[in-house]
Amino acid sequence: MSEYEFVVALTLIFAVAAVLLVVATRYSLPAVPFYLVAGVLVGVVVDEGQLLDLAQWGIVFLVFAFAVELEPLYGSGIQRDSTVVAVVQAAITGAVMFVVGLLLGFDPLNALYFTIAATLGSSLVALSLLERRVRLRSLHERLAESIHFVEDLLAIGAILLLSAFVYADGHLIALLGGVLLVGGGLVIRHYLFDRFTAVAGGDVEIMMLTGISLIIGFVAIAELAGVSVVVGAFAAGLAVASEYPHDVETLDAIGYVEDFFAPVFFVTLGALLTVPSLAVLGIGAVLVVAVLVVNPVVTFAVLRWRDYDSRTATLTGYNLDQVSEFSLIIAIEALVAGLLVPALFEAIVLAAIVTMLGSAFTSRYAGDLHRRLVDTGILDADTEAIRAKSRVADDLRDHVVVTGYDREGQQVVEACEAIDHPYVVIESDPSREETVREHCENYVFGDVMTESAWEVANAADAALIVATVQRQAWAEQILSFDVGVDTIVRASDVESGAALLEQGAFFVAVPDVLAAERLRDLVAGLLAGDLTREDVRDRGRDRLERAVEYGPSDVQRIR
User: Fold this and answer.
1) Which of 56, 214, 484, 528 has its CA 20 to 30 A from that of 428?
2) Which CATH number fits domain 385-550: 3.40.50.300, 3.40.47.10, 3.40.50.720, 3.10.180.10?
């Protein structure tokens, strides 16, 4: 692609995407479907060769951004179960779809490409729908992210094996190079990056330049080793640590890279869509059924086997219903190498677009679907299963229900204990189970978004409900239960706070407003002589030290 053609293609991508994104923003709709529609329009004037190059580099930078934001290990239980689910789902779906691929007339290699496309889910699309700027807390979100991490490792392994035994005729240098790249990224993440961040002082520009330098360096090494550039991008993302307390600066810096390349990838994917033949429609339909039906059902069954509640299993399954970006990069590389049947490539692109569009709706309505299945008796409400894992006194009345034992929840619990007032904590984070059992008198381990958890917590007889998570969907769901108890919720801004008051909230805590009021009182006390400079300094130091002691909040700043 010439420099002029590259500039023209990018200009078209961003111009068309910007127009359609205005519509998405106006009606609060997900951006991904509009990017794909923009791509269909751009594809009319941009040729396939240019699109393949743009799609490949769009995937590279988005895989890097995803790996940076990745927090896959939320405790041994989540890690173990996610690995089991990902491996079993890949094995079952993979075995079935490989046979289907052979029955469709593909040779074994193309049947393998068909199988990969049918088996792996898109971490980029799925996690973009899970409020990535908010630290994930719902159990199904944690499971989904961890399962995607395992699936991405499986995809990296597939890419390395293909590089070594298909594209390089048995050369193990590519395989070894890929393993060393991923290992090197993890070494930098765990032993070097935090130290560098401390020296840099969390400066956003330095962090962004560091991230770009890492991705360029790792991609260059990948090309020298004969490894797919997407492996280098994934390893570079793993090298950038985003753990507390430097996660905000890191994600702010890398977020700009993600915001730039997201439209590049999704628009070019839409542009790759062609008018499908009957054969392409047939192959694409089989892929769509595998991704939208088989994968979620298998995931649901495995999670239920691992004793997860039906809502968690349902919502997790419907976060795996997209064709993976790794499947697309594998298909692009195979097409360029002349190994992939063109009809199969067109079907993979078609299935990717259909499932990514569908995922925007399934992620929004999966909870409603689960409630209907419970109401009709098809699925169990899991009340007794939640009760068996919880500890709630039989005579618990006039208590405070606290949703989450994060920084804010711990402080509410401390306030209750200071005046010896009964309380119960509803917690869904497995990594906090031991802490909750040790420090809380009454607790419920269940999904705060289900009525079963509130029934076990005896919420109808409570004196007050305190929802500590600054998340609109959670607050709205809690208020919708309408248990007749005064409910305090949190909001990210005054506009959404006002809406929550209209929906029945007793009080809405808006962090910025509370901070401004506290600062006002502090300044007034200092100027009136009620507080000394030493008082102000000591209070500020004590509050910060206490905040660090409690650990990170479940709310992460939104850029």
Assistant:
1) 484
2) 3.40.50.720
What are the residues whose beta carbons fall under 8 Å from the beta carbon of 345, sequence distance 6 or more? 331, 332, 334, 335
163, 227 in Cβ contact below 8 A? yes
Distance of CA 210 to the CA centre of its chain: 24
CA distance 299 to 19: 38
Residue with tokens 């892929």: 287
* Residues written for the chain: 559
Q: Going by C-beta distance under 8 Å and a sequence separation of 6 or more, which residues neighbour residue 371?
A: none
Residues 6+ apart with CB under 8 A from 20: 34, 35, 37, 38
Global pTM reads 0.77
Question: At which residue do the structure tokens 């479907």 appear?
Answer: 33
Whether omega for the bond prior to residue 245 falls within 30 degrees of 0, making it cis, is: yes
Can you tell me whether residue 71 is helix, strand or coil?
A: coil
Q: How does pLDDT run along the chain (559 residues), one tens digit per residue?
A: 566 666 777 788 788 888 888 888 777 777 777 888 888 888 777 776 667 777 777 777 777 877 776 654 445 577 888 889 999 999 999 999 999 999 999 999 999 999 999 998 877 665 555 444 444 457 787 788 888 888 888 888 888 888 777 776 656 777 788 888 888 888 887 777 767 766 666 566 776 777 778 888 888 888 887 788 888 888 888 887 655 444 555 566 566 666 777 777 778 888 888 888 999 999 999 999 999 999 999 999 999 888 788 888 888 888 888 888 888 888 988 888 889 999 999 999 999 888 888 877 777 778 788 888 887 888 877 888 888 889 999 889 999 999 888 888 888 999 999 999 999 999 877 778 888 998 899 999 888 888 888 899 998 999 999 988 777 777 888 888 877 888 888 887 888 888 888 888 888 888 777 777 777 888 888 888 888 888 878 877 776 666 655 555 554 433 3
For residues 113 and 343, give the distance between their C-alpha atoms in angstroms, rounded to a whole number.
12
Domain with CATH 1.20.1530.20 in the chain: 3-375
CATH 3.40.50.720 residue ranges in the chain? 385-550
Q: What is the DSSP secondary-structure string of 459-498?
A: GGG-SEEEE----HHHHHHHHHT--SS-EEEE-SSHHHHH
Per CATH, which fold does 3-375 belong to? Na+/H+ antiporter like fold (1.20.1530)
